[in-house]
Each structure stands twice: as C-alpha cells, then as structure tokens.
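Lecture 7 notes: from sequence to structure.

We start with a single chain of 182 residues. Read the sequence below before looking at the structure.
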Amino acid sequence: MLLFAALAFFAFAQAAVARNGAQSAADAAALAAAQDARDTLVLDLGDAIGTDANWLDWLDLQGDGAPPTAGSEAAAQQLAADNDSALVGFGRPDVDGHPGFWAKVQTNYTVGDSIIPTTEGRHAQAEATAVIQPRCDFDLEADPTKPVELVCGGEPVNIDPEDFDPDDLPDASVMFSVHLAK
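Now the structure, written as tokens:
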C-alpha cells in the first residue's frame, strides 16, 4: 500500500514538473512577444517625432502608437523553443485598456511513464499574457509641434520635434513597462 502511494505521489510530481515547465515557457513566450513589440514601438516613435503630428498618442499606445506585431509572434516562438516547448496559440488581447500578448505553449516532452495510464504520451500545456503599459507622464494639452517635457519612469525627457535625435529617447524599458497580466 505504501509503495502504491509513493508511486502515485511520484506520478503527480511528474505532472507538476511538466506543468511548471510549460508555464515557464508560456510566461517567457508572452514576455518576449511584448518586449519585441515594445522595442519596435520605441524605434517607430523615434521615427514619428517631428513627422507625425500625433506622435504624443504613441506614448499612450493610442492610434498609430498601438504596438506593432510583426516580430512579436516570432519572438514568442523562439522563447518557447528555448524552453523545449512549441507555441500553439498566439493573440493580442486588450487587458484593462492596455495591449496584451497572449501565448499558449505545449511542451515538446511528455509527462512520462507512471502508474497512471496514458501519461506517457501527454504533453503539458499552459498560457500566459504579458501587457505593455506606458510609463511617461506629460501635459495632455501639449502641442506636438513644440518642445514637450516627458517624465518617463521618474526621468525627465525633453523632446523638441524641430531638433530631435532618436538617440535622445531613453531606453524602451524606461518608457514602457512589460509585465505578466494577473
């Protein structure tokens, strides 16, 4: 009886390990997608300042400032693969008014052999959503054609659209946070 209980406990532990591995892969995939979109967003914002009259909307992730998705799914696939899993679902949900990146993964490995029938062929699955949120405060009535002061992550950033160098923008992580949705 004690041996059976030990084997059953071992089977549940195997399943828990596979599930945790899948969850780690899903978290990494969702975060990679959001970080890729955030980095591309900041590059595009640098190009928009001085040429797009609505560049301030980008700081609130509105209009043309919605995060791009071109490389996001590929970034999610890569991080899933790095965690011995495959991306089996990807989407762009809205999370409390902020852009999200949803990833569903399935492990490439199975739960393994145990006393519970059919576990040897079962793959663990998990999903996660990462969110991009703006970290810059600015005067909402500011004229985007004139110098604007932003406060991003506690750092002041002065942007003059007439004399702007994209290298003057702070790091993407200072302008936009990326985190897992709860």
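The mean pLDDT is 84. Keep this in mind for problem set 3.
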